[in-house]
Amino acid sequence: MTSSQAQPPAHPYIPNTVPAVRQAMLDEIGAASVEEFYADIPDAIRLHRPLDLPAPLTSEAELGRHMEELLARNTSTRQALSFLGSGCYQHHVPAVVDEIVNRGEFLTAYAGEPYEDHGRFQALWEYQSMMAELLDVEVVNVPVYDGFQAAGTALRMAGRITGRRRLVVATATDADKLSRIRDYVRPDHDVSVVPVDRETGRADLDAVRELLARGDTAAVYAESPSAAGLVDESLPELAELAHAAGALYVVGCNPLTLGVLAPPSSYGADIACGDIQPLGIHQSFGGGNAGFIATRDEERLVAEFPSRLFGLVPTTVDGEYGFGDVAYERTSFARREEGKEWVGTAAALHGIGAGVYLALMGPQGMREIGETILALTAYARRRLAHVPCVDVPFGEALHFADFTVRYSGARTAAEIRAGLKERGIFGGVPTGEREAVYCVTEVHTKADIDRLATTLEEIVK
Amino acid sequence: MSAHHMPVSVTPEDARVAPKPRLRRYQQASWDEKLVFELGAPGERGVLVPAPDPSIDVPEIPAALRRGTPPALPELSQQQVLRHYMRLSQENLGADLNIDVGQGTCTMKYSPKINDQFVRDPRIAALHPLQDDDTVQGVLRVIHDLEQLLKEISGMDRVTLQPAAGSAAIYTNVAMIRAYFTARGELEQRDEVITTVFSHPSNAACAKTAGFKVITLHPDADGYPDIEALKAAVGPRTAALLITNPEDTGIYNPRIEEFVRIVHDAGGLCSYDQANANGILGITRARDAGFDLCHFNLHKTFSTPHACGGPAAGACAVTSELAPYLPYPTVEFDGTRHFLDHDRPQSVGKMRPFHGVVPNLVRAYAWIMALGAEGLRAAAETAVLNNNYLLHKVRQIPGVSVPYAEGRPRVEQVRYSWEKLYEDTGVHSEDIGLRAADFGTHYWTSHHPYLVPEPMTLEPTESYSRADLDEYAAILAEVAREAYEDPETVRTAPHRSSVHRVRPEALDDPKTWAVSWRAYRRKILGEPA
Questions:
Q1: Distance between CA A304 and CA A293 in Å, rounded?
Q2: Is residue A51 part of a domain?
Q3: Cβ-Cβ contacts under 8 Å, B284 against chain A
Q4: B525–A contact, CB cutoff 8 A
Q5: pTM for this one?
Q6: What residues have CB less than 8 Å from A187, skipping those under 6 apart?
Q7: Boundaries of each Glycine dehydrogenase C-terminal domain copy (chain B) (predicted)?
Q8: What residues of A are in contact with residue B120 (Cβ under 8 Å)?
C-alpha cells in the first residue's frame, strides 16, 4: 500500500488536516498534540467513542446524488397546480432578486462594520426606506424573524407604551400566529380574541366595544387582509374605537397589497407589522418568511423597537453616505436584559431581497400586481361559487389572494383536498370539517382557475 | 507595423516580476453609489406583471381602503436595478472573500457551494409548507434525519428545528422551561434565571422577555464563572441556568458538571447555549455534562451562510422529560412514511410559521452528511488547533494581552485585550479593527459589557488554512506597529474602504436620526413632508 492510500485525504472543507501541516503547526506552538488544548475538559464528560453517525458522503458527487434522491421525493408547486397560501405565497420571484441575494458578498457576510460592509448597510437602509414609502411611515426596522414575531413584538411595544394588560384581536387571525402571540406576550398580557361575524367575515364591532369599555386595553390588533383573505371595511372604525379607549391600533398587513390598498397608517394604525415573504422571497416549505414593524417617527414609538434600525449619517468625507445603528442603547446587544426584548441574527438578507423586488416593481408594478391579484381572487370566488355544493361566503367583500369556501355536500374538506391532490392540484387547506381556504396570485391564469372549478365539480358531491 | 511589434532588447532583469508584498495591496470597490431613490426616471420599469385576462374586471375597492397616492418607490429599468445592487455587493465583504476570523463568537466558516444548489432547486424553493405530507417526503426526511443527527451530537433525546435562529432557540428553550414549571405548578415560585456575563446577551434578554428575573454571574479572577456566586444565587426561586461553555473568552469551565449539579439540587433546569460548540463536536456533549436542554445555531456550527444577519436557523435539543413541551408540529416517522404531528397538548405552541428555516436545515443536513463523525471531529480539532496557533502568533504582538486563566489553553476562540496598546498609544481596539479593513479583513469587538478592556475576539474555525492565519496575524502585527509608530494612520482608518469613518452623533438624537429616505428629507434636508 502506498502512503497516499494509507492516509485518508484531507476533507475539502477543512484545510490543516494534512499531517505535515498539522505537525508543523503543533511544533510551532510547542504542543505535543491537539489533546493538550482540551486539557480543561474533564475525562468524566468526554465522549470516549466516535459519534454514531452515518458514513460520510465525502465526495461532492456522492453528496449530490444522495440529495437528488431526497429531492426527487418532493413534488413542487411548479410540478402541480397549487392554490395554497395562508401565510406563505407563491409569487413570481424576478431573476434579478435571485441574482443579488445569491451573491457571495451578501450571502456569506455577517455583522461587519459600516466600512467593510457598506453595501449591506445601504441595501438594508434602502429596504427600510422603500417599505416606509409603501407603508406611508418614516420608521421600518431591519427584518425580524417572521410575521408572527413582528406581530408579537408590535403588541409588546404597544403594551410597554400604554402600560396596559389586554390585547384585543379583532379580525380573523391564523391559529398558529395566535399561538405564537399568546406565548410571546404571556408574562405581561392577556389576549382576547373576538370571533368575526360568521355571515360577513367582518370584525364584530359591538363585541370589540364591549371589551374596550373595560379600559384596560393596550392594543387592538387587526389584519388586512384577514387570515380569510378578507379586506375588512371596518378597519378604519376599529382605529377610532381603539384610540377612543386609549389603546394603540396595531395592524398586520400583507405589503404586496399596498400598491392598491391604503396603508394601515392612513386609517389610524400606530404600528403596522407583517411578513415580507410575498415580496420576492421563495416559499421554501415555509422557510422564506421575514417580519417587518413600522411606525411614525416618534421617540416613544422608536424607543420600543427591539430590532435594529439603520440610519443615514455623514462620514468624515463630504458627500459620502454613511450608515449606522439608530438608538443602539435600546437593544439587548447593548444592555442585555435591560434592552427591549432581544435582538440577534434574524432575516436581514430577505430584507435586501425585498428591497430589490420593490426597486424592480416600482409604483406601477405594485399597483398592477395588486390589481391582478384582486381581479383573479374575485374571479376565483365567483367561479367556485358556481360549483354545486361549494359555497363562497362573505358576499361581495373584497378579498386578496386567500378566500374561504364551504362545502355543503357529503365530502369533508380533507377528502376534497385529497381528491384534488390525486388530480395534480394542491389546495383547500381545511379550516373546519367542511371549510377550506384557497389562494390565487398573479402566477395563476383564468384557465388555471377554470381547471380548479371543473375538477371540484368532479369531486365535491 | 505598430509600435508594440518593434523589436526591443529585453534582459531577464527587465522581465522579472517583483514578488507580491507580504501584505496585500487591497482596495475595496468604491462606487460612490447613489441611493436607489436618486436613480431612474418616472415611468421606467424593472419588471412587468401579468395582467388578468381581459374578461376579468378589477373589483371596486371601498374608498376608505383604496390607496390614494401611489407609493413613492424608485422607478428604474431592470439593468439599473441590477447594477445598483451589484455595486452594493462589491462594497460588502462576505466570508467568501476574506479571512473572516475576526467575527469572534459568530463562528464564520466555509458554507459549501453545493449546499446552496440544493436549496435553490424548485423541489425545495418551490415547496409550500401546507402541501400534503405525501408530496414532501424528501424534505420531511431531511428534517427528521437532521434531528436524529443532532440528537447524537448533543446526546439529547428529542430535537426541534422550528426556531428561526440562535436567539430564537434560546427563547424556545426558556419557553419550554416556563411550560415545564407551569405544568408542575412551580412557576410562581421559580421566577429567576441565572446566566453569565460572558454568554450572549440573548440569554439574559430572552429570559427577561419570558418573564423571568435575571441574575448574572461574573467571572472569578481566573475568568471562570464564579462558582461561589452561583452557590449564593441558586435556591428555591431558581428556574434555570443558561450558560455557554466554553464562554466567549474561549475558556472551558472544567467545573461545568458541578454547576449543573448545584442547580439541579436546587430543583432548577440547566440549558446549554452551544453557540460555541464548534470546538467540541464529538469531544463532549451537553447531555454528558448533565444538561436538560441545549441549542445550536445552525448558521454557526453547521455551516449555513450568515446572510448579512440572517435568515439563520436554530435547533433545540431536550431530554425526554422536556420533550412534551416542544413546539408543534413535530416530524415523525412510522417506519414507512414521514408525517407532521400537530397533536401535542403540552406544546409551548408555535415558535415560527410552519416548519423552520428549511433552506438552512437542508444545508446543515448536507454539511453533516458530508463530514460524518470523523469529519466533525476533524472540524473541532482543527478549529482548536487553528485557534491555539493564532493565539501563539498574536500574543507575540506588542500591546496584546490574553486576560484570565494564564497558562490554560483556549478552545475555539480567544478574547484578547489591547489595553496595553491603548495605554501606550491612545489607539482603541475599534480603531485597529477599522485599520484591519484596509487589508481586506475586519474584526468585531464583541458583546457589551466590555469586561475585558479594549477587547478583540478571534475565532479561526476549521475553515482557514495555515497561510490564512499567518496573513491575519501579520495584518494585526502591522497595524499594531503602526499604532506605535504612526497612530494617526490607524485612528483615521479606514483609508481603502468604500467609505470613510461615519460621524455617528446624529444616530442617537430623535431630531436627527433618519431611518428612511423620507425621514432624512424631512428632518435633515428640510423638505416639506
A1: 11
A2: no
A3: 41, 45-47
A4: no
A5: 0.97
A6: B209, B210, B211
A7: 379-484
A8: 98, 102
